[in-house]
Batch of 4 targets.
Target 1
Amino acid sequence: MNQQLEKQSYAGVVCRSCRQPIPLPAIVVSMESEIESDGQSLQESSRGRVFSLRCRACDKEMPYRTKDVTEFEGTPRPRVSPARRKAPHGGAGEGFSRAASA
């Protein structure tokens, strides 16, 4: 039972802030495939093709060009919502004890 596992890969860019890979959303991937199907070279189309992505690691958003896109091995890092990133708040009066009611 020797099965060869296919290496997973995804298209993405390197974050300009923390240098972690950022996977491309489907709309940017479709934009790239349109460019290839139109027969334009990547250099011709990269002048005007700019998109912004938010890093999943440092949460900073930066502009990238289609020429910045590279292929990464493995699976993309899961997205963590900002609510889960921070510790949950206890609400008003956090850190204070309640006074006994008489």
Target 2
Amino acid sequence: MRHLIIFILFFSATLSAQNLQSYLNTASFNSEDGAFLETYLAFDANTLILLEEEEENNYLGKIDILLQLTVNDEMIYTDHYILSSPRFESPEENNLFFFDQQRIPLKNGEYNLKATISDVNSDRNPAEHITDINIDYKNEMSISDIQLVSAYNKQVDKDEMSKSGFSLTPFVSNYYPQNINVLSYYFEVYNSQEISESKYLLNTYIETYQTNIPLFDFNKIKRKEGKSFSSNLLSFDISELPTGNYNLVCELKDIKNESITIKKLFFQRSNSFSGLKNNEDIKAVKVAGTFAELINDKETIKLYIDYLYPISTPDENTFAQNQMKYDDIELMQKFFYNFWKNRNANSPELAWNEYHQKVKGVNSEFKNFRIKGYLTDRGRVYLQYGPPNSRNKVDNAAATYPYEIWHYYKLKHQTNKKFVFVNSDFATNEYRLEYSNVYGEVSNAEWRDKIEQDRSPTFGDDFNNNYINPR
């Protein structure tokens, strides 16, 4: 086993004195020696405590890493090691991400991976990353997992971490901010010689996450000859990709254009412009005879459009606010109908009615003295992600403000995700979201301080138990 540390300038900001920021991603592959899992851990050097090395006259941090793989709660693999950071001239403003990569041989099966990460020089609580792993490679045509790549170069001297002659720097996050305009990815195809006539189509594209509609300008199609093994390192220019949630799709088709197998990887994009339709396009939407035409009161349609914000993309929210500013009821009806038709083309009215019932329930349960339920943090999370699998509510703890911990076993492509809401203002009874380990949500490193009441020195035990073992 080898620890591969790769350095890359990223979009880090100075975050000294915060919890160590770490990120985990994985990908599985097959080989002549059997299947294996690669783990990619990324660390923000700005959040690591660096101590001076007297003899070297520089600063170094150390990270304690525990990897555990279980099957039905039975431990089948564990690795515990200390990872040293790069050396720095100063303990501050080290805008750098560095990586650790491991390769673990695995048989076909379903696994649970847990990575426990802690700063050796800090007494703060360890971070935990938990994800489900599925290995299923058979003697038939198949695709490996998709590995996101931030940088790559040809490798003359092959080592155990290189793949197909390339040294690949992993892109550990599924979030692409505005300053990153290239999405690179690597995957492998196995046993394509088994297909009829030993020829196939390789189709890779980006699709919308909500509707699974392929985007016209983000598509690559290649005709390929069948082989026992082939590798693919490709890129998309995403500079013109609007803000939103997407799937990166790799699909294999036969010569009749029928799908053989497919792999998808979720990612988020943030951009500075709107990719939504303009008003001329919205005007072309026909609402005559639809449920939207019956919503003929301006204030009602405005309220209904406002209800949509928890399940809208940022661009849809911007476009919706513009429609309400125009104060044209027909345009608002068209926008509202088009919104639900995009989500359920066969039954847009049914989709709206089901969502409307959820909004009514949220408005009843989560309203407070200031705002309606759907505008609260708990209401927004409930509407966006659905009801949690468990909800732990503590109203009268001695050392903390009232809080709630929501736990989701599986949330789209993520597992073991939590939300922490805190009521620090008894006058309004408003529970604010202070922390979540869900992509794109609030991830304030000082979130535990928001829960502590009067800086009580006894804070910690009850809350930590509730967070680690939600009920």
Target 3
Amino acid sequence: MNDLERVRSAIAAVLAQHAGDAEILGLTALHGGACQDNVRIDVRIDGVAQRLVVRSDAPSGIPGTLNRAAEFDILRAATAAGVQTPSARWLTQGLLRDGAWAYFLDWSEGVAIGRKVLKAPELAEARAALPGQLAIQAARIHGITPGSEPGASITAVSAPDDAVEEGLRMLRELVDRLESPTPATELILRWLVEHPPPSREVTLVHGDFRTGNFMVGPNGLENLLDWEFARFSSPFEDLAWLSVRDWRFGRLTAPIGGFGQRAPFYAAYTAASGRAVDLADIHWWEINGNLRWAVGCAFQAQRYAQGQRDLELIAIGRRAAEMEYEALRLMHRGIEGL
């Protein structure tokens, strides 16, 4: 039995257990996710054709990412809070790979590729709607706090006493795990330590809230995706991450994801969340985000060097210097550089 046959058989067993009369019509490996393994399943359940995704742990990943069991808990809490994200079901282990956690996810239509989101003529109205829509979703995510979590217990994610100190600790740990950290990396990290932001609030964050991790249709947002970096941190981490240089996909004059401006987005977020946005917080977390992604890029290249021969990993790795440059630019120019 080859691997595809084994996977089909394993998926069929889970469907038989949970969905009753189910027939697999097709399996397709999905590409474009650099952290996890995703497989599209075309299936007929009780005579109705539908499409699902199996999302499974990859052979290796970026340090700090959740496994699928923990991500499953996050998704249940998010959907309970009204966040626009596909529903997850049927958590299992060993489905695509021995020992790897996996779950089944509702299929979401739309476009996620960043450059298509920002350039496709048919998505012009969607781009206009996205800032307000994303502000509402961010507010719902950030309404989940260690003391008010509305859904299933998030057992695998602990809440720090101080989001800033925890963010610095995580960055230090990531940098120390790099085979060859750069002087720029160390300089940026030292600046972050010496110039802390004013807010210490802790909420749930998506952790990778940016263009490329949400599906977009003609009317705007379809669904938020890819929760592997979710954790308790500062809500301003998500708001700043959306503006990290790489997530603008070349449209640097549109700092909100390459499709919007800061002031209306922050105003919409404040209206939805009741939380004022201090640019000093955004500035610190945006520098943090550019450094975090620089380190993340370096780790993707490191995964390639360690034998995971995926060209996407080495293509991402080359962006590390660009992210370091952006962090240094923001350090030099201050809040005016936003």
Target 4
Amino acid sequence: MKKSNEDLKREIIEAGYKAIEHLIKVAKEDIITGGDGDISADRLKNAAATKKLAISDAFEILSRIQSEQEILDSPIQSGSNQKQGFAEGRAK
């Protein structure tokens, strides 16, 4: 059976939350691991950049999820508006 667009969007939202959880794990990981305390500046910069990207991506995904959730939760327009064309519906 074919899923509706609304069902697919809800699945995408659920997957987005899981992705955010993984990105949070990346952001929480310690940069310096292992026994040697001597780590190159390039490796530190790359690790910090990875964490920054993970945090930024998590916020971007969360923002998009909130937008899509608001669209899904908004009340359906009345039947008279649905029969109007694009321009007529936006004119009000």
